[in-house]
């Protein structure tokens, strides 16, 4: 279909708030494309529809604030923050719902369903109380840096229309080691007083193994103080801990969290959806999105965002003309060497024939010879010849070897 990238962008913009009639027309377009042999374009519309459905399943309309969920006073922008007595430095920052992203983070179906189950508990508190149980009020989110853990916690707070008391515990330990236990007590006293979500970022900075011979006695006392305060907060409000290093956590800390959610590095389809979500206002062709998803094997959402930003810069400096994608990927791989999978780097900087063959043979990326040619700025026959040359050379090597 001519101008499909524009049609795809219009569908992507319309579908999040689409009426049933609009959604039906997009489905009709998808089916028409599929029946007409445009399976890749039909698949692109299916992805847009599925992503919108997942977002709607955990949309704000499904959340109803309950006074039984949190207690205390309302936080305002003028509420004084707790501070360290010696330095007067604030021990936390307040993030209000209107300052956070309203769009749900993109995860695979398994993670999205798990998050939905927690949200369902919070939105059906009365039903839980009737059968003698309570919603999960403590949650530990862990995984590699850049996988969206903090963004997820802020998004969950937004769904509940709750301000976040954000505490980055790494700074607390490094700056105030001698008075850390007292500061933790002050933080929890503050959080317990107000209706809020207490978000403990860089959780491993304090919650380290108490039997670690490298740690001084002060840290062991800090961990004990943290455990006591976590216990005292039960039944008062929501508490979320975030860590990049779950192996450093004391086993007693793990037991304090009812939900223990691991956020993995995204798989291919999720990487493609993440790249598309960061693309606006640039319209990125579907074949380019698939190559970006293939290229970012093992990457996190934050790293994919960085690559898409590089793509958009390359487009902008050429007056809206898309730069050859392989050049952009090579530029990114050069400037972000540690972020790129070694196998992908080798293919990218090796002979183009090997790269073309890898793209042709990898079913996950699902690129045709024409797609590969468009991406590389070559015609289909040239791509075919370069792949054939590589295969002939390997056959000769096999015979001579």
TrEMBL record:
Q: Which InterPro entries match?
A: 26S_Proteasome_ATPase (IPR050221), AAA+_ATPase (IPR003593), ATPase_AAA_core (IPR003959), P-loop_NTPase (IPR027417)
Query: Which Gene Ontology molecular function entries are recorded, alphabetically?
Result: ATP binding; ATP hydrolysis activity
**Keyword annotations:** ATP-binding, Nucleotide-binding, Plasmid
The cross-references to Gene3D superfamilies, in alphabetical order and at most eight, read: P-loop containing nucleotide triphosphate hydrolases
Q: Which SMART domains match?
A: AAA
Domain AAA+ ATPase stretches: 135-267
Similarity remark: Belongs to the AAA ATPase family.
Q: What is the name of the protein in this document?
A: AAA family ATPase
Which organism's genome codes for this protein? Answer: Sphingopyxis macrogoltabida (Sphingomonas macrogoltabidus)
């Amino acid at each position: 279909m001519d101008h499909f990238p524009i049609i795809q962008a219009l569908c992507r913009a319309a579908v999040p708030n689409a009426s049933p009639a609009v959604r039906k027309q997009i489905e009709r377009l998808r089916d028409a494309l599929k029946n007409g042999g445009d399976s890749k374009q039909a698949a692109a519309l299916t992805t847009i529809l599925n992503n919108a459905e997942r977002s709607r399943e955990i949309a704000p309309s499904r959340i109803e604030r309950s006074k039984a969920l949190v207690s205390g006073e309302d936080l305002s922008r003028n509420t004084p923050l707790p501070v360290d007595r010696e330095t007067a430095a604030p021990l936390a920052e307040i993030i209000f719902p209107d300052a956070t992203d309203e769009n749900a983070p993109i995860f695979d179906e398994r993670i999205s369903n798990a998050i939905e189950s927690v949200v369902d508990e919070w939105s059906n508190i009365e039903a839980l109380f009737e059968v003698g149980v309570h919603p999960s009020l403590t949650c530990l989110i862990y995984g590699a840096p850049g996988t969206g853990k903090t963004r997820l916690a802020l998004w969950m707070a937004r769904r509940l229309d709750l301000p976040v008391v954000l505490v980055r515990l790494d700074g607390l330990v490094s700056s105030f080691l001698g008075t850390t236990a007292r500061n933790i007590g002050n933080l929890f006293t503050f959080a317990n007083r107000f209706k809020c979500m207490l978000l403990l970022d860089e959780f491993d900075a304090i919650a380290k193994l108490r039997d670690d011979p490298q740690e001084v006695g002060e840290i062991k006392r800090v961990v004990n103080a943290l455990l006591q305060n976590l216990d005292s907060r039960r039944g008062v409000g929501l508490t979320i801990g975030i860590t990049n290093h779950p192996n450093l956590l004391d086993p007693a800390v793990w037991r304090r969290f009812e939900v223990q959610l691991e956020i993995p590095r995204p798989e291919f389809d999720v990487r493609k959806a993440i790249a598309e979500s960061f693309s606006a206002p640039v319209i990125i062709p579907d074949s380019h999105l698939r190559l970006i998803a293939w290229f970012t094997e093992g990457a996190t959402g934050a790293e994919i965002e960085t690559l898409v930003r590089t793509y958009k810069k390359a487009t902008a400096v050429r007056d809206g003309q898309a730069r050859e994608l392989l050049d952009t990927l090579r530029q990114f791989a050069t400037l972000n060497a540690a972020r790129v999978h070694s196998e992908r780097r080798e293919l990218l900087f090796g002979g183009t024939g090997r790269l073309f063959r890898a793209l042709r043979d990898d079913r996950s990326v699902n690129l045709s010879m024409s797609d590969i040619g468009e991406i590389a700025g070559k015609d289909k026959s040239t791509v075919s010849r370069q792949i054939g040359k590589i295969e002939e050379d390997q056959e000769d090597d096999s015979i001579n070897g």
